[in-house]
Amino acid sequence: MIEICTIGGYEEVGKNMTAVKIGEDVVIFDCGTYLPVLIEHKEGLETGGKYSPQHLRKIGALPNDLVLDKLGWTKKVCAIVIGHAHLDHIGAVPYIAQRYPQAEILASPFTIEVLESILNDEGIKLSNKRKKIHANSIYFIKGKSGKIKLEFVHTTHSTLQCVLPVLHTKEGTVFYALDFKFDNYPTIGAPPNYKRLKELGKQGIKVLVVDSLYSGVDRRTASERIARNLIEDALSFVRDKNAALFVTTFSSHIARLKSIVEFGKKTNRQIVFIGRSLNKYVEAAKRVNLCPFYKSIRLLKYKDQVNSFLKKVEKNRGDYLVVCTGHQAEPGSILDRIVGDQTPFKFMPGDHLIFSSSIIPATPNINAREAMDKKLKKKGVRIQTDIHVSGHAGREDLRDLLSMLKPQHIIPAHGSLKQETPMIELASEMGYKPHENSHLSHDGKVLRF
Length: 449
What we know:
It is a single chain. The chain is an alpha/beta fold. The chain has two domains: 2-220 and 391-448, 4-Layer Sandwich (Metallo-beta-lactamase, Chain A); 224-384, Metallo-hydrolase/oxidoreductase (Rossmann fold, 3-Layer(aba) Sandwich), CATH 3.40.50. It has helices at residues 35-40, 53-58, 67-71, 87-90, 93-96, 109-122, 194-203, 224-236, 254-264, 276-287, 303-315, 334-339, 363-379, 395-405, 417-429, and strands at residues 2-8, 17-22, 25-29, 77-81, 104-107, 130-132, 137-143, 146-154, 163-169, 172-177, 207-211, 245-249, 270-274, 298-300, 320-324, 352-356, 382-384, 409-413, 445-448. Helix 7 crosses helix 14. The longest helix has 17 residues, at 363-379. The chain is globular. It starts with a strand and ends with a strand. Mean pLDDT is 94; it is low at 43-48.
């Protein structure tokens, strides 16, 4: 029997965490934070504050893995497998992993480097062994019942070295598909490993846990190459050589940052990255030799450094292209502080701000961005928004995944009931039956196969 506890990410966008039990062994997939709560409590990742597990649990920022205590699974956890380096998948590891000291943390090299940066920034020491596993390779987890075969299948998403973990067990194969998109023209790295996906489908998949965030959107998600073209176009409209130029995007999106730098060079401005999370991801990318633009930028992390630099931008607005954090209008982020007139730099009419991002669909984010946009327009800033393509599969991509894998059972994940229900409807179109072999779950529920 395979037992799956859908711990987090089945009622909300974030705090993704799933536990799979086979015999006397439990493997955890992902340990993510719930970012909207952190934003709502004004504890954005730029503030430099230190978190305690108790406080994060109290405000609902961590998945409720205490359910594993009630199930008697806690001491059986032999591995924590992380699919990629986004905080809603990796951010809770520093606060949760110590509950499972016997469990190895398994992830791609870039993801492990990001984790190490978080641990260092927060001053947290974990006794858990960390193991870097490359995409398209196999690792054997040591469990009480013997070795469990783990496979990492390469995929594309909106950060580096993303993998789809596959657990091969004597009870059947569990395929964990959070998060992914099918990008045939990525600007860093290779396209998804379609060949292996088809092979796995022929071999047989017992259970598929699948990213359903945009399962209700009738589209194929566009390639990052499209975003690259959008960046080039957006920067080409900045013709006033005396106006300030700011770009904000996801700190983890190294491919996007690469495009910003490459086309930013054509503006003949010095390119400067400011913000702690930008520093975290860019330095991690450099350590795994996946940051080709590193020598073309200046990277500022500390508040005093940033304020000193912003004084220069205030005096010489046309000399710099500033890449900063805060596209979700997170309280305490660099952009939030600038817009709130809390830094030496003040936006003026005619200055440019490019949002190379989308708003994460959560109420605090939406409200915060609306408020920020009003302030920017009042200041006369020229704004370009949604210079972006998503990192998540659309409905037609998901249809293709199901066609390739042909799983016996499907569990939608990574969203609210509203976002996951269309995945059940898509499965029904393809011959699956709700409650029989397609299963809507909720946080803390146990499904048995």
